Structure to design on (421 residues):
């Protein structure tokens, strides 16, 4: 997050709404191509108002981004694109640079011209991400990348990948990693979709065989990839990309293209509401199943609703703190852990209501198969973006100040770690 510029201190939510509304009235043309409209958002600084003016923003406080994105939709115009480009890659590139990449990569993300995926996890490196073994070796003007990534959401239709690769095995594992912007559409990148137990296929295996990355596509600096990766992970724990903009169903080229873009993006995430446990459906489910007056089920529902409300308020408090300029911190881990607890508890309550029928799919099953999808999807909530155990470690060490885990592999050159390098 960047510091608001001094003049921005006078801007209030109301004054900002008024200024944006005037601007939209003057500039919005429903027949523009979506990209052309977004170019206007970039030029005017409305695309990401909290960013510096030099980089498509207005130097406003953090709260302005969400307010403006919501207001654009409310005023009947299109907002910036959703997806891990806007959500993860752009703030990482903004924070770590260099300027040449900011010039070249930020605008196509913010107009929606280029979509991104995250190439972090590997078969042998998930929680222990710094143990990754994909390598990148400089060859003339290109880095040559070899290795395998896994669980890469949306890699099957991404233009660019946020790639972590090892560029130096002679130093300890966190120090020899470089963060690259990898062009996905090339012969050295093979993407294979994985079928999940809930029948969806949103992630992939990505095989990198002599894949080439232009020398200048290093985000941050060579060997400094871990710091940039931490930036990406801190944004990932906010779940921001999962909010679908409520575009009005009205004619006009820009909104038609924006709705199609959102449809494409959210097709991958259609099961994510079920992954969150659907606590919003438990009361309806209990009534439909005729068990809403069962005292044991009522107790379970009340407990779940309390847990859910508290977690929503905690997330809201964290959002307000960020809006006031705080960097994303341990509250992301707390919120993520709370979301996992709510999801699991909700799956348990749905199972209590439906009994064994909870596992059935089809039109006459519990909530038309939604409950079965909840049961098959909730485990993913405790894994994606860092597992529950890892969030607990972060909270224990960074919030509670408890002694850190024993980490014997931190000071040893990566090449000397057993079976690696
Ligand atoms: C829905 C979903 C989407 C995802 N999208 C992406 C993506 O787009 N890009 C990407 O790169 N990755 C993605 N991932 C991968 C995800 O980041 C990893 O699955 C996650 O970090 C866990 O790594 P792992 O699967 O290798 O499990 P492991 O790290 O092997 O963990 C196995 C078990 O051991 C426990 N464990 C490990 N280390 C410790 C420890 N130090 N202390 C206590 N317990 C520990 C874990 O909690 C877990 O229970 C996605 C995963 C999911 C489920």
């Amino acid at each position: 997050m960047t510091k608001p510029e001094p003049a921005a201190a006078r801007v209030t939510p109301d004054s900002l709404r008024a200024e944006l509304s005037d601007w939209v009235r003057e500039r919005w043309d429903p027949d523009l191509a979506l990209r052309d409209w977004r170019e206007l958002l970039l030029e005017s600084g409305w695309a990401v108002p909290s960013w510096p003016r030099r980089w498509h923003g207005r130097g406003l406080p953090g709260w302005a981004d969400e307010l403006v994105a919501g207001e654009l939709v409310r005023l009947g115009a299109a907002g910036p694109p959703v997806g891990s480009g806007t959500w993860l890659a752009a703030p990482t590139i903004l924070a770590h640079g260099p300027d040449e990449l900011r010039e070249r990569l930020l605008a196509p993300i913010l107009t929606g011209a280029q979509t991104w995926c995250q190439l972090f996890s590997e078969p042998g490196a998930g929680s222990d991400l710094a143990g990754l073994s994909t390598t990148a070796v400089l060859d003339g003007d290109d880095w040559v990348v070899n290795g395998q990534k896994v669980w890469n959401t949306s890699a099957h239709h991404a233009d660019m990948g946020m790639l972590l690769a090892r560029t130096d095995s002679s130093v300890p594992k966190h120090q020899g990693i470089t963060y690259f912007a990898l062009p996905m559409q090339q012969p050295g990148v093979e993407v294979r979709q994985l079928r999940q137990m809930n029948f969806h296929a949103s992630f992939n295996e990505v095989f990198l065989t002599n894949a080439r990355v232009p020398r200048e596509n290093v985000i941050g600096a060579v060997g400094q990839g871990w710091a940039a990766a931490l930036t990406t992970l801190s944004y990932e724990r906010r779940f921001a990309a999962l909010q679908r903009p409520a575009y009005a169903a009205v004619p006009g080229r820009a909104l038609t293209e924006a709705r199609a873009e959102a449809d494409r993006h959210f097709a991958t995430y259609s099961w994510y509401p079920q992954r969150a446990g659907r606590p919003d459906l438990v009361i309806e489910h209990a009534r439909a199943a005729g068990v809403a007056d069962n005292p044991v089920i009522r107790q379970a529902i009340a407990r779940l609703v309390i847990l859910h409300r508290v977690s929503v308020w905690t997330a809201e408090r964290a959002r307000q703190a960020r809006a006031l300029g705080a960097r994303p911190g341990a509250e992301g881990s707390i919120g993520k852990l709370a979301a996992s607890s709510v999801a699991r508890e909700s799956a348990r309550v749905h199972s209590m209501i439906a009994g064994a029928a909870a596992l059935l799919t089809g039109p006459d099953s519990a909530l038309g198969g939604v409950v079965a999808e909840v049961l098959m999807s909730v485990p993913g909530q405790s894994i994606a973006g860092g597992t529950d155990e890892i969030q607990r470690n972060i909270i224990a060490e960074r919030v509670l100040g408890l002694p850190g885990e024993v980490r014997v592999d931190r000071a040893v050159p990566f090449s000397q770690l057993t079976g690696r390098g």
